[in-house]
């Protein structure tokens, strides 16, 4: 789930940068890209991956 959100944020950052949209300092393309990278790092670390299979034993 976090990887999908980060992909959407990367696309928004690309659109801001490609269309040369002037935004305030909070929503600049670099800041949106860094938020996307942070979410991608959390996804790779295993946070937000969904259900864990450790709890299910047969």
Automatic annotation (TrEMBL):
The chain crosses the membrane at residues 34-53. Keywords: Membrane, Transmembrane, Transmembrane helix. This is Uncharacterized protein. It comes from Streptomyces bauhiniae. The lineage of its organism: Bacteria, Bacillati, Actinomycetota, Actinomycetes, Kitasatosporales.
